[in-house]
Fold this sequence. Notes:
The protein contains twelve helices and twelve strands. The protein is an alpha/beta fold. Helix 1 (47-54) packs parallel to helix 3. The longest helix has 17 residues, at 221-237. The chain is globular, with a radius of gyration of 20 Å.
Amino acid sequence: MPDCGSQIVLCDVPIRFDTYKGCSHGCKYCFVYRKYNISKIKKAEGKEALISFIKGKRAQETSWCDWNIPLHWGGVSDPFQHIERKMKNSLDCLKVLAKTKYPFIVSTKSILPQEEPYFSLFKQCNCVLQVSLVCKTLQEKFELNTPTFDERLKFLKRMSKAVKRLVVRCQPYIIDYHKEIRENIKKYAQAGVYGVIFEAIKFQKSSKGLVQIGNDFCYPNEILKNKFLDLKEECHKYGLKFLSGENRFRNMGDSLSCCGFEGLKGFEGNKYNLNYKIHNDKDLKATAAMENKGSAYCFKAMHQKAGSHKLWKKLSFKEVMDSVFCNKSYVHSYLGIENGKHKKYRKAQV
């Protein structure tokens, strides 16, 4: 069944759906490497689990959700990676989504969806398509088993005719490539893109010019903020939405939701999270299901101590989220309050 992890604290669409486990793209910066070996690829969830969710059935991790929340397809694995040509697990699910018109957001680096029967099915779907594109230099250095930057750029033009909304994911944004990234914005506008999501790379190890925020090493706030303001101005110059996937600058985006679905009919995300508590608490409202005992099980990914599963069964989603609102460490991490001083930024290695 679709589930959700630690993003539940601040994401509008935290319920993810993955048709594969592992990914043949093998991008060197992929955060999933921290969890398991992504080179071991196998089929994950299928159409049966998807149909059950669409019909309203919920697992423990999603019992807090009592409405048709958009699914985020491709949370930890690309649904249209190379193995899809053989397994066709994503094709089976796409047929279900085309028939039911259930809202979803899908992320990919693949260009397979431009082929039939995928292309015709996408035309029938209630979908926001996110295509990962940073710049040609990054693709050639760190995304060696993916379609090229130029191939994905052509793919954008093709898919703009098939989906409700088309968004580019500039994730991970790397300061060293800022000029090249900025120059690509005009190309995205010409391809029919709605907006661009920017989120800076997170490093596992300390390096000169980085500061620690939570468990990650990141670009300093003032340096990244100035870069983002420059990118926002360029997006607006060409009529694109600037969407900030960077939690500490979420309110800099043209929407508090960074996925690009705002204003689309049938796309209603979860606004009872830290993002809205800090930036727009007038929209902060828990649903009936969020107040049910046991609906807090989705928070288990954040605290996995022995016996903690018993605690989640006793608590409600609302109770735990309310405690997060008062938790200094969560709020500081979200706002990007830096731990320690930093020196002037110098090139950091991926």
